[in-house]
Design goal:
The protein is mainly α and 484 residues long. Helix content is 74%, strand content 1%. The chain has one domain: Sodium/glucose cotransporter. It is globular. A two-stranded antiparallel sheet has the order 1-2. It contains 19 helices and two strands.
């Protein structure tokens, strides 16, 4: 379907409108952005509406819409159902600790718990590796793939990816988190609305008749060979969600940018409600319908069904919604990555008082270049979403183990936790690339337990320190830096 003038006009109008409204909402927040709190946490000025909107759209992008619908089965909805539990853990367990410690980054909490800046920098570096080498290029690739398949255009994916990267970087560099969160929210309303329209168009295309679709595509109880076996819900799934929603800077940064804990929790609970009531349908039903209409076409499913069923007069608006989703997710990861580098690495080892906007702009540009160079690596992957979830284990469980040990125990040497992290990354790499005895979600739990036990053993046997289990109330009363 060639791009028509009406589609282009609607696309440009909506995209420009979101940018204009974002500028209008941000215009009063002049650069006190020299401060980390303003640039990376919007000066603590995000209301619960913007917290919820930014969390929702930071997570919901083309890697979700394209990747999950690309599996063309209902089972992938479990990622969203279990995410609700992860958000509740963030609101009730982790946010009170982050707020009581006045954290700018999640890794700042680790420095306080272990009284050591090196563990903060180590975990920040791991987060950066995941963001720059996994999330950013995949977001660019899936967004470009969607545009290519929806409009049946021959523009090379790398050209489309470059356009997304440049615009997304502009938001992150010139507006900081405030601009990112506001654009997220307005774009999110548009995207969720259009995605729901796609669901109804898809169901109408098959007259709400799912006959002829294999049972394994419709069931929510996966067998051992499925992407989400039912028994994995009882093992590693909850810890994957805890890592993603409660310790991952890209997500948690939004909840840490509210004026107070109560406002942040309201935003997180609102995001959980959206994830429970709306998101599961939009990330699986179009894919299932596409299986009935086109067969097993993988990650091209969502773009194909939207391109075929969306009325011409609406397709420009939907393209704008998808572009907004890609841009906001991309610039969210860029902003959080800049925060990790500036706060956790640069200020600790290079300069304590850098020009935050200038330094963030430079490092953001570097991250964008690396992400673009990696886009061709992911082109042609069998299933983007399964690849992402599998590779996540390399970093997620080792990182989560440092938070678990730091919050549950005192008198643990930071070097023991770092040894455990490095060992955990190596162990999961063995599972991923050499020998995977069980489903990868099971092995994530195994990796987490391995890391925790390793940290405690190394702490005792190598550094001669006995870890002490601390009371629940003490976890949020972290000693100030420099305390014994």
């Amino acid at each position: 379907m060639p791009l028509q003038s009406l589609q282009i006009g609607v696309f440009v109008f909506i995209t420009a409108l979101i940018g204009l409204v974002t500028y209008w909402k941000c215009r009063g927040a002049r650069h006190a952005a020299e401060s980390n709190k303003e640039y990376f946490l919007a000066g603590g000025g995000l209301s619960w509406i913007f917290v919820a909107g930014s969390i929702t759209l930071t997570n919901l992008s083309t890697d979700q819409l394209v990747g999950m619908n690309g599996n063309q089965m209902a089972l992938l909805a479990w990622w969203e159902f279990s995410a609700v539990v992860g958000l509740i853990i963030l609101a009730k367990v982790f946010l009170p600790i982050y707020y009581s410690n006045n954290c700018t980054t999640t890794t700042e909490l680790l420095e306080r718990r272990y009284n050591n800046k090196h563990i903060r920098a180590t975990i920040a570096a791991l987060f950066l590796l995941g963001n720059v080498f996994l999330y950013l290029p995949i977001m660019l690739y899936t967004g470009s793939l969607f545009m290519q398949s929806m409009f049946a255009i021959e523009t090379p994916i790398i050209v489309l990816a470059t356009a997304f990267a440049l615009v997304g970087a502009a938001y992150a560099i010139f507006g900081g988190l405030r601009a990112v969160a506001i654009s997220d929210t307005f774009s999110g309303v548009l995207l969720l609305g259009m995605a729901v329209v796609v669901v109804f168009l898809a169901l109408a295309a098959i007259d709400y008749d799912f006959s002829g679709i294999p049972a394994e595509r419709l069931t929510l109880i996966g067998d051992s060979d499925s992407p989400v076996p039912w028994h994995t819900l009882l093992t590693g799934m909850i810890f994957i969600q805890t890592f993603y929603w409660s310790t991952n800077q890209t997500i948690t940064q939004r909840a840490m940018a509210a004026p107070n804990l109560r406002e942040a929790q309201k935003g997180v609970f609102a995001a959980a409600a959206i994830r429970l009531l709306i998101v599961p349908a939009i990330i699986v039903l179009p894919g299932i319908v596409s299986y009935k209409l086109y067969g097993d076409i993988g990650d091209a499913a969502y773009g194909r069904i939207v391109g075929d069923l969306m009325p011409t007069w609406l397709s420009g608006a939907f393209a704008a919604a998808i572009a907004a989703a890609v841009l906001t997710s991309f610039n969210s990861v860029l902003n959080s990555s800049a925060a990790l580098y500036v706060c956790d690495i640069h200020e600790k080892y290079i300069s304590a008082n850098p020009d935050v906007p200038k330094l963030s702009g430079f490092i953001t540009g570097l991250f964008v270049i690396v992400a673009l160079l990696l886009v061709p690596v992911y082109d042609g992957a069998d299933s983007i979403i399964n690849l992402v979830q599998k590779l996540n284990g390399l970093l997620s469980m080792p990182i989560l183990s440092t938070f678990v040990v730091g919050l549950l125990f005192r008198n643990v040497d930071a070097r023991a936790a770092i040894v455990a992290v490095v060992s955990g990354v190596g162990l999961y790499a063995l599972f991923s690339f050499v020998w995977m005895p069980l489903h990868y979600i099971h092995m994530m739990l195994f990796t987490l337990v391995f890391c925790i036990v390793t940290a405690l053993l190394v702490n005792r046997l190598v550094f001669g320190r006995s870890a002490e289990l601390i009371r629940k109330s003490a976890a949020s009363k972290t000693p100030q830096l420099g305390a014994g």
